[in-house]
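Subgroup meeting minutes
Present: P.N., E.W., G.H.
Scribe: E.W.

1. P.N. recapped why we're keeping a running log of single-chain structure predictions: easier to compare across weeks, and new members can see raw inputs and outputs side by side.
2. G.H. added today's entry (330 aa).
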Amino acid sequence: VGSSVGSALVDEAALVDLPTMEQVRRRVRDPLAKRKCVVIASTPNLGSWFAKMIKKPPPGSEVFFASTEENPWLEESYLSQMRADYDEKTLRAYMSGQPVSLTGNAAHAFVEGEWPAGNLRRCVYDPNEGVYLTVDNNRSPMCGSLWQATGSLVGCFAEITLAGGSWNSFGEAVYRALKGKRPKGIAMFGDAVLRGGITNEATDWGHFADIKAGIERAFGGSVNVEMRCPKANPLEMDRLIGLNAMLCNGAGERRLVVDPSCTEVLTDLREMETDEHGRLRKPGRVGSKGVDPKRSHHFDGVGYMVMARWAPNRDTGHVPEVATGRLSLA
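Output recorded in log:
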């Protein structure tokens, strides 16, 4: 955006902080514009600056409320799926556009607290294919999950929640989760902290090297292990959006499934909440109910995998691939 524009559109405004919104508004000052305007669209999350603004609009502004059902381009099957998946409060917010407090809402909509049946599926490990391993940088418990892709689906077939220990012992836990059967390859996804001050990406893997050493020691030989680790962690909201798109996108497609035995992964994904601004609030943190040291770590690990493997780059629109021909991780 240049220093001056004639108009601006801000989508999902309730997720934008007010100082940023003011910066956008001040840019709308092009002297050649016949009518300067800022169009703001969002779900009016009660308690946000946006909800307060539409309750008392600034002079010269107009407010329009619209229901999702008024969109003539949406298929009835899509609307029916929304009605089936969302609870009453979420329907009022996202279907009717009513100001509703979304504080405490699940990061993904669940019906009566249950995992959507479409995302719950029996997943069986195939040693002839590659494995995705998610890791979060937490020492106790150490949390990870193991996934495999089949067609357009990626399924979680095992999870690791290891109290105490070392990254070497975490690697040994991976061996046990694979039941001692060597996979075609392993791609490890984790957060930037696990890089551990990497200076030479070709030779230095940080904590990932310890995990790899533990895996290879347990298998008694070399294993094709690769690292997928960002230089900086993606924004939590980006991870949330990317993960929700995998759980159920706008077309009703569910590409991420979890085996019923992976209870910690299921609980983590179910218990992620948003605050009054729509930002992620992790259970166990200040302002949330109760403390559970296991919570959020599986969510974080899965989010790193989704962002590295499937989420588009916000600058280029490029969808990243697992950049190797050595693993058959389609």
